[in-house]
Amino acid sequence: MRSARAAVAVAAFASALVAQAEIPRPVARAFASAGVPTDHVAIVIQRVDAAQPLLTHQPDVPMNPASVMKLVTTFAALDLLGRDYRWRTEAHLGGPLIDGTLRGDLILKGHGDPKITIEQWQAFMRDLRARGVERIEGDLVLDRTFFRVGSHDASQFDGEPLRPYNVGPDALLVNFKAVRFGFAPNAAGTGVDVVVEPPLPQIAVGGAPALVDGPCNDWRAQLAAAFINQPRAAAVTFPGSYARECGARDWHLALLDHANYVHGMFTTYFAEAGGHFGGAVRDGRAPATAPFAVLESPPLYDVVRDVNKLSNNVMARQVFLTLGTREGGPPATVEKSTAVVQRWLERRRIAMPGLQIENGSGLSRVERLTASGLARLLASANASAVRDEFATSLAVAATDGTLERRMHNGSAAGRALLKTGSLEGVRALAGYVLDARGTRWIVVAIVNDANAARSTPALDLLADWVYRQGFATTTRHGPRP
User: What number does CATH give the domain 87-297?
Assistant: First the structure.
C-alpha cells in the first residue's frame, strides 16, 4: 500500500513541475553580487506533499551537479542493497596451518568495502592471530577481481595525484589508501614532531621542518615538502619550516599503489598483533571455499552517512561500483553500475532526462543531471522505506558535515538537511528544509559558472528563504493533503 501511495505521489510531483522563473529578490541580488548570472543557475523548490512547486528556475537544463550526484548513488544503494547491507573482506589459507605456521600464502579477497579503517584492520589482524596464525611462510596474495575498473590516473581530474579524494576505487581498499602526516611542536619547544600514520615500511620520511616563530598562514607551503611517490615505495622530506603558532596540524596524502599499500598495512599490523611475515605481495584468486576469517563492514546506512555528510568521493565510488554486482554478479564495472541505476530509476518511475554518470561521486567534469530530475529523486526518497536513513545521512545546517561552518546566522540553522556540491565552476545544494511547522520542503539549487565559488552565500540565503517562505505559505493556506 505504501509503495502504491509513493508511486502516485511521485507521479503527481513529476507532472506538476510548472515553470515559475522568478527567483526571490534577495537571492537574486546575492547571485548578482557574486557575479553569477541567473541563467547559469537551476532551482526547484517543492513541498514534499504538494501538487505544484513553489519555485522553479531552469529546472530542465542539464547541469554539472558536483557532489550532489552522491544523492543518486546513495538512494539507489539504500533501496537496492538494503540499509543493513555489509561488505566482506575474506582471508583464505593457501596451505596447511601447522603449529601456528601457515605453510603457504595468505590470500585476501576484497568485495569493495568502502570503509576499512586502521582500527578495523587491527581487529582483523588480531582475529587472524586468535585463530592460530602466528607465522606465514608464503606471500600475501590479493584477490581484487570483485571490481574491474582498469588503470586509474590520479592526476587526470585536477593534476593533484596525492590528494586523497583522487584515490581510485579498488575491491580491496584499505584506509582509503591514505597516509596522515601529523605535525606539532615538541614538548621541549625546540623542534617539530612528525608522526606518520599508518607507519608503513615502504614510506621513508626525511628530517623534520624547523620550528619558527611567526604566523601560521600557508603552513603546508612553508614545509617545502618534496615527494617521490612510486607504486612500491615513497619518500617524503620536509626541509622547510613550521610555525609554533600552528599547534597540531594534519596533512593527508595518498601514497603507493593499492596492492603495496595493503602489503604495508598487513606487514605493520600483523606484526603489531604478534605475527611474523616477511613475504612479498602479488595478485591472485581466492579459492571457492569458505574463508578462514572475515572482516565485516559497518552497515550500509552508516557508510552512506559518511558519503553524504563528509562528501567522501572514494567511498561513493566504492558504493556505486558495488551496485554493478546487484544484477548479474561480479565483476563490477562502471558500465554495469550505470545500467543498474538507470533500470532502477525506470522501475521507480523517476524521470531523470539528461542524467550522465561517470563514477557516481560527482568528482567529474562530465556528470550531468537536471534540477527537476533531482527533485523527483528527492521526492521518491522521501516516500520510500529508507526515508529516514537517506535524510539523516545529509549534513545538518550549521551543525555537522560539510555544513558545519555554514548557515549559522540564518533561520535554517539546524532545520536543513542538505548535500553540498563543490568543484571549480560548480556549487550546488540539494536536500530538504524543514519550516517552522516541521513541514518538509525539497530544495535543489545548482550553479555552473566561473564565479560559482562566490555563490555560496546566495545558496545559503535560498535555504533560509525556503524556511521562512515555507512557513508563510503553510500558515496562509494550511496543510495540503
Answer: 3.50.80.20
